[in-house]
Every structure is written in C-alpha cells, then in structure tokens.
C-alpha cells in the first residue's frame, strides 16, 4: 500500500539535490513546501510539481534566521497543512584553506548548515510530535570525514551527524525518526563551483571524480532523492539515528 500523503518541507529546494528531492517526494504523493532563500527561485520546482498534478508551495526563508524560520513553517502549516516531513538540505560553501578563511566565511557556513537545521527541526517537530509521526532527514556529506579547503563545511557536516543522532534519541518516542544522508560527489552547481575554485574544467573534474569512485560514475541529485524517499517513508519507521553514505562505494 502507498504511504499516507503528508506535508513535506525541503530546504534549499530551488535547484540541485533539493529540487530533485522535492520532485521525488511529490511523486510519492506528498504535498511539498519548496523552501529557498529566494522565493522566486523556487518557481521552476513548484511548477514542475503542479504540472505533474501535485501540490506545492514556494516559501522564501533564511534558514539561519529564527524569525524567518518561524514565519516560513507557519506559512507551510497554513498553506498545505501540518508538516511532518522535513529535509534539511539548504547549504552554501565558502571554501578556503584555514589561513585564508575569514570568520565571516566560517560563520556563514555554520549558520546555514547547522543553525539552519536546528531552527527548522525545532519548528517542525512541534507539528510532528502533535501528529505522532515525523521524518527528519539532514544532509551531511562525505566531506564530514575531512576535505582540504573545507574546514567550515566539513565541521558543519560532521556536526549534523551528531545533531541527527541526538534528535533520534530525543524524538523517537513521539513517532519521529531522524536520519542523515551523506552524499559523495554529486554533479551539481555546488561541485561546479568547487571545480572553478581549483581551476579545473568541470568535465575534467567529473572524470577525475568518477575514476576515484568504485561504481565508476559521479552521483546525480536523483541518487540522493531516492534514498531520502525511503527514509521518510512509513516503512522506514525502524531506521533512526543513522548516517547513510550515498557515495558509490564504502566510506566509514
């Protein structure tokens, strides 16, 4: 039997992994709040969902801002219904080696990834615990294990793993599961920006990444969306507190 249709929030859903996830959850039958810093940038994702017969709502929000998050989650509850699925995908990069990294670059990355996941989860869990059902998926990364030039990003993504495990312990008794997905190399605008930063043509960058991956290809946003689709399903109710690396090979 298909899952009960629910209301999902996906942050950073204007493009990339977030957009693919929003489309997948809509295809699974859920109404989806497409959240991004720029509400206008959400239009293509929302249009794709509605044109396929789904329900979607564009919401502009700065996930690192407490008031903005409160307004956004209330708008979702009013416009679509109580959100019981949350995918904390919003993210930015401000890559640099430690001695070149500014405090602002550190704070910006921590604010969106860690503070954003905290604020969104805190706001959404009130609806989940009341409904007796909830699914939270946080986007970590293989960079959580360390990656040159990404001290801020790696620390934030590692922090999300501890955050995930703690929320799983706290919220499990209320029917809420909390997991993290840690992508490996995924072909997105963000990885294109990394290639540009290191001065390598993107096609060469992709080829190098594929050659270092056991399945001999780079990941696509749909690879991550598929895993998230499982984790938010009713059938995944006994999976909680896990960090799942979706990286085309084994990572510890």
Task: Describe the global form.
Answer: globular
* CATH class label of the largest domain: Alpha Beta
| CATH third-tier fold name of the largest domain | Rossmann fold
Instruction: Indicate the proportion of strand residues.
Output: 15-25%
Cα separation of the termini: 35 Å
Strand order of the largest sheet: 3-2-1-4-5-6-7
The CATH homologous superfamily of the largest domain is named NAD(P)-binding Rossmann-like Domain
Give the CATH architecture of the largest domain. Answer: 3-Layer(aba) Sandwich
For the largest beta-sheet, the strand count, sense and barrel status come to: 7 strands, parallel
The radius of gyration computed from the alpha-carbon positions, rounded to a whole number of angstroms, is 17 Å
Total of DSSP H or I helical runs spanning 4+ residues: 8
- The portion of residues assigned to helices is 40-55%
Nearest-integer average pLDDT: 96
| Count of folded domains | 2
Please count the beta strands (DSSP E, at least 2 residues each). Answer: 7
Keywords:
7-stranded parallel beta sheet, Rossmann fold, 7 strands, alpha/beta, globular, 16% strand, single chain, 2 domains, 46% helix, 252 residues
């Amino acid at each position: 039997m298909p899952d009960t249709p629910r209301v999902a929030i996906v942050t950073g859903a204007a493009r990339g992994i977030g957009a693919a996830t929003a489309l997948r959850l809509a295809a699974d039958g859920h109404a989806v709040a497409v959240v991004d810093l720029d509400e206008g940038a959400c239009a293509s994702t929302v249009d794709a969902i509605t044109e396929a017969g789904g329900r979607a709502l564009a919401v502009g929000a700065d996930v690192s801002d407490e008031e903005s998050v409160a307004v956004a989650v209330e708008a979702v509850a009013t416009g679509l219904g109580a959100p019981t699925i949350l995918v904390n995908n919003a993210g930015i990069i401000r890559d640099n080696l430690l001695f070149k990294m500014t405090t602002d670059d550190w704070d910006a990355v921590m604010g969106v990834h860690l503070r954003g996941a905290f604020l969104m989860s805190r706001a959404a869990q009130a609806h989940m615990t009341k409904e007796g059902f909830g699914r939270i998926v946080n986007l970590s990364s293989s960079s959580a294990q360390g990656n040159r030039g990404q001290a801020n990003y790696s620390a934030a993504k590692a922090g999300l793993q501890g955050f995930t495990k703690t929320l799983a312990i706290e919220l499990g008794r209320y029917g809420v599961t909390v997991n993290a997905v840690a992508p490996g190399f995924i072909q997105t605008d963000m990885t294109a920006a990394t290639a540009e930063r290191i001065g390598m043509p993107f096609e060469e960058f992709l080829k190098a990444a594929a050659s270092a991956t056991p399945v001999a290809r780079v990941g696509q946003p749909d690879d991550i969306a598929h895993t998230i689709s499982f984790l938010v399903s009713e059938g995944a109710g006994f999976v909680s507190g896990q960090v799942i690396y979706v990286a085309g090979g084994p990572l510890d």
